[in-house]
């Protein structure tokens, strides 16, 4: 069924009123009445649920992607109740129906402690439909709550058949005209005027592109902060669409919708692939659906009646090579109604190809989320000046500078200075340069539209040399996918806090619609190995579940028929083989997301991909020993190998492949168990046993010395973390690992695959003291080494850069790579000591790891039930811990490393404190 959003006349009458008032009058105020009419209830109702969300954390979304939404909520932390025993969800097409009977779904009372991922089970929902929902709960004493505030949910266009629009482009770019690369690389501009005969009750713009677009309505940006939309997906299979509410942006009478368009990831080059770049012409697709207050509907779609030109001011745009802007081509008011477009041509139009799915975007787009001002001006002369922003970041500059007519302005970017000199060699073939050609001598304002840069420094040249440069000439606009950063860890050690900041900035710079490996050089790809390392740390640091879920959909689409997972997603033909430790993202990421959220949907969506990847592993193995290619323990420090092979580390490749083969089978087995797939459970259990046995006998002798290759830290880390030694051998393997670390003067010798496992394995061995030593090392290789050398993000190599020598001459020197930020996982699971024992942290262990390195640490872990809060202090041998256990959760205290432990709640000491119910606790003990 396709219910209207709201009756147009009704909307015109109640629009001045808030939805909250309408809902109160029509629905929520019926709580007491419902309670009195129920023989099970009294008028004393407990606090209503809060934090109502759908899907992976959306609040009141417009243009939502799921036709069967998942509902989640929380119990208020100030409630007198501790746990939920039942819930009731109601969904309706209008808020008024809550006072009588909701017409879409009433779950009735469901006995369950679950407060998240509840699947809608009502009447089928359809494209454009707006629905209202609310929830109430019963606590552990079966007391009912008030109804929650009503939340809205509006679906986007869910299928291709919902689109009446056509893809449009400038007619000269039609492939039949054999357009040149230069022509395709020139951005396109479109406009369409239309008249409205009455006031607007409701208007939605559905829009997307093969390429990247910037939309306007009546001269104003539809969304000034959205950039590089719609983002990057496997374009031959699926293109994401966005929905914008334009209800308040349309006028009675004449209106104009407009957009500019460039190639982005679709048409401009990807990586260093210059041959195929600018061969596919970008295309725009838009559909503006309007309901007037008299009920009349009007739809404006992209088609041949739109006007198009390529004579606009942006003359070239590329993700990697920057943007060229020519002031002489400016078209004042080109996107407004009062503009003469007679010289423009009619657009070229193409029908939608139903083989390519058009689907609503399932996570927030890239946006301008912050602004940074320079902290210093460097190397100023009459020709150029360098601006230092003090922070490696991703985005574009906003210029406010004096220019001279016909004197080109050049804007260059760098991550660091090489021995004091401006340096761009580590960008490799990415030009990463913007050019502005002024037609007048004046102060101009300019910010690029269709490119992005990774940088800390900007070099500006070609400005009016008669004017003295100042810091207000340039502002950096920080861009990344619009995710919520929690800023949820702090300690008494400044360098540890700086490391946490650096890791956060690494996340911000590389969560750019997909999880990039780096944001600055000629790569910027969704490398799966980097993602494996960082997926769980990122979930602690930020609200990124929707981000990862969306990327996994692209991974499923890119999986080959034989089960192969490419090295990076989306895939472009560049490196076309699979790697162990990289492709295992197909099993690792879904499982890690499930354990962090408790959402079985992520396993159900990806289970077939997990199984197919296991099958591919099997096809690349002989007698359960993997022969798959691998990048190895990428960029392990002090490798014995030489040349390019040194980048892959010293750990035996087949050992790596077999270990990850076993791991992928184990995680797929766990997923099968959650999803109750008994036949698969039996087969996967047997397969895992065979691989484990083969791994042990093939790679290690009786003394657990590797039979082939080097005895490396990573070899033992893989075997221990993936449980590939039996219980009797585990202690011996731990001793051998610790001995290897000792031989390295208590430094790590791990790359991309080994480093994420260090903290978990060592804490399991009871050696958190050694983790602290590794973490607080000041010398190479260590995290603090990079900080001592000016790092403001995490690096690709442990020694990518030094203040004395500049960039490492070996290459592969991205200064913004999040993989080694994986250590932040231990900030939460080790230093704070919070580890989930049930998926989604419904139950969790509390076991902070103390050290003389820290006097204090505090932080939060965000869960579906609320925030776990912990703050601990150490003075001499006295330990004090403040702990908050969220509602509907339980905490298991593991403080065996403390003596004389006491636990108090509300000032009253608790005798049985092994398992804590929701509340605030004060814990004391002695080291």
Question: What features would you describe in this structure?
Answer:
- The protein is an alpha+beta fold and 927 residues long.
- Strands 20, 21, 25, 26, 27, 28, 31, 32, 33 and 34 form a ten-stranded mixed β-sheet that branches. It has a seven-stranded antiparallel β-sheet with strand order 36-46-47-48-53-50-51.
- Helix 9 (585-597) crosses helix 11 and helix 10 runs antiparallel to helix 11.
- Residues 1-42 have low confidence and may be disordered.
Summarize the entry for a quick read.
The chain is of the alpha+beta class.
Features of the shown structure:
single chain; 927 residues; alpha+beta; Immunoglobulin-like; Jelly Rolls; 5 domains; 53 strands; 29% strand; globular
CATH class designation of the largest domain: Mainly Alpha
Question: Roughly how much helix do the residues carry, as a percent range?
Answer: 10-25%
Distance between the termini: 64 Å
**Number of strand elements:** 53
The radius of gyration computed from the alpha-carbon positions, rounded to a whole number of angstroms, is 29 Å
Provide the structure class. alpha+beta
